[in-house]
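for the writeup, i need someone to sanity check this before i put it in the appendix. the sequnce is what the collaborator sent (i think, or maybe the updated version? ugh). structure was predicted straight from it, no edits. if anything looks off just tell me and ill rerun, i have time this weekend
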Amino acid sequence: MQLKDREDENRRRNRAIRSFVLERRRRGGWQPARLYLAATAGGHAGRRAALAHRGAAKDELRLSGGGEVVGRVPEGLPSIAMPRFSPEMLTSLLSAAMVIALVGFMEAISIAKAMAAKTGRR
């Protein structure tokens, strides 16, 4: 199969997925809610949507992702406290601060030179 054929097939599948009408149904207990193909008139799921996704069993569509992206987010704000410093941390922060200061100084000098060149000043 050539790249063009695969792109066309992918486009057709994306159109079919976008045409799905889903409804979310809660289940009891700690089980997560599931998405099902929404019922149409007559109580059956949309025929086009049901045929478009062959992997859907009993009009059920399972969406899967790559896992948790963020994980658990703690509630509220952290408590206010002094940060702990170690000599190793201070030396690494000092070297990074020196580099940032040097880059800022060089940027300011280059802007000043550019402005001076435009205005004809020294």
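Strands lie at 22-25, 34-37. The helical segments are 3-18, 47-52, 87-119.
thx in advance!!
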